Amino acid sequence: MNLPSLNQFLDQINARDPHQPEFRLAVKEVLNSLLPFIEQNPRYAQQGLLYRLIEPERVIQFRISWADDDGRVQTLPASSKWPTPCCNKEYADPSTLKPGYFG
């Protein structure tokens, strides 16, 4: 796997997640730090590290239903993305987890 340039990688993220500006900004900031290291250590690019870091560990999909002011039931789909543990100290250290934290 070849190492994409910063702009190529960000273009892929922008196309994939156009409605998540905070996520895209976080990816850009992390990449600015990681790319020099990965360029010096290409084995990480060959293992697809960057692509694995930006994928959430879990995506939980659910729906939210409520009655509007006219008494009609409305339903919206929703989801919650859990970050990859290696990118978030709170999730990376198992000793910080409370019983039932993931369940």
Commentary on this structure:
This protein has 103 residues and is α+β, with helices and mostly antiparallel strands. It is 44% helix and 19% strand. It contains 5 helices and 2 strands. The chain has a two-stranded antiparallel ribbon with strand order 1-2. Helix 1 (6-16) packs antiparallel against helix 2 (21-40). It is elongated, with a radius of gyration of 18 Å. The protein starts with 5 loop residues before the first helix and ends in an 11-residue tail after the last helix. Residues 89-94 and 97-103 have low confidence and may be disordered.
Compact overview of the structure:
The protein has 103 residues and is of the alpha+beta class. The protein has helices at residues 6-16, 21-40, 42-46, 49-53, 89-92, and strands spanning 58-67, 73-82.
